[in-house]
Amino acid sequence: MRAAVCTRYGPPEVLRLEDLPTPAPLKNEVRIRIRATAVTSSDCYVRGLRLSPAYRIMARLALGWRAPRQPVLGMVLSGEVDAVGPDVRSFKVGDRVFGFNRHRFGTYAQYVCWPEDGLLATRPANLTDEQAAAIPYGGLLALHFLHKANVRAGQKVLVFGASGAVGTSAVQLARHIGAEVTGVCSTANVDLVASLGASTVIDYTVEDFTNRAERYDLILDAVGKRKSAAALRRCRRVLTPSGACISVDDGTPKLRRDDLVSLGELATTGEIRPVIDRTYALDDIVDAHRYVDSGHKRGNVVVTVP
Length: 306
What we know:
This protein is α/β, with parallel strands linked by helices. The chain folds into two domains: 2-135 and 275-304, Medium-chain alcohol dehydrogenases, catalytic domain (Quinone Oxidoreductase, Chain A, domain 1, Alpha-Beta Complex), CATH 3.90.180; 137-247, NAD(P)-binding Rossmann-like Domain (Rossmann fold, 3-Layer(aba) Sandwich). Helices cover 28% and strands 27% of the residues. It has nine helices and 14 strands. It has helices spanning 41-48, 53-63, 129-133, 136-148, 165-177, 190-195, 225-232, 257-269, 285-293, and strands at 2-6, 15-19, 29-39, 76-84, 96-100, 111-115, 120-122, 156-160, 180-185, 200-203, 216-221, 239-247, 276-281, 300-304. Strands 3, 4, 5, 6, 7, 13 and 14 form a seven-stranded mixed beta sheet that branches. A five-stranded parallel beta sheet has the order 10-9-8-11-12. Strands 1-2 form a two-stranded antiparallel ribbon. α4 (136-148) crosses α5. The protein is globular and about 60 Å long.
């Protein structure tokens, strides 16, 4: 099978295309013929090992010292089941699926084997593989943090970084819950964020949201503390007395298959829609990583796997 291999930690150019053996599923696994995947910010952090010195040592011990032990990166997929292990009962050959696995990686390839009881669900029939691949990463993370904050109808939620993969999902999901959503983004993305359901959009290049009179029940940092630290330093002053500020960097999210199924149902009914900035072919994976590294993507960068 064709796959993009991470030969060492470093810039996008450390990725190269190779022919690898096609994996065979274990007794509880399904083999998926991948049609589309996505380049996430997490993929780029792993590839570049862009962490503080202390965390970099821990990451090398966990992932591999000079290069990832699992050389094929990629966490999300959409495709079809093409083989199943003898104990598999949830899926059959030919099922169209989409999913997320932050521990196995392996989706920058034509095939991958995942456990049937993992974060894998039936793909929404009204979506293409490219659209379905744009849902799991941002959708599952956004849903986790909204659940963690116990967001309810009628509350006021501000999403900082509302135009990224997590941010575009958080705006739509908070709106679906019934919250009044304020999105913070750059000038170029104001119209996009408004179209996703934000009742107010603040252009951070023009205005500091902490100077507004509005008070929020939740401020969700959807970009991570390395980018948001300065902007959120004064966020406490615009929170309600019981309000909270949560970052995607807070703790290790517990992601659930039920939430993936819910995201598929919401996409089927049109309550949420995938946001795709650019689409690349697997042969152009280096260019896709370069673009994500630039820090200017809107929503998701999808990669097709021919």
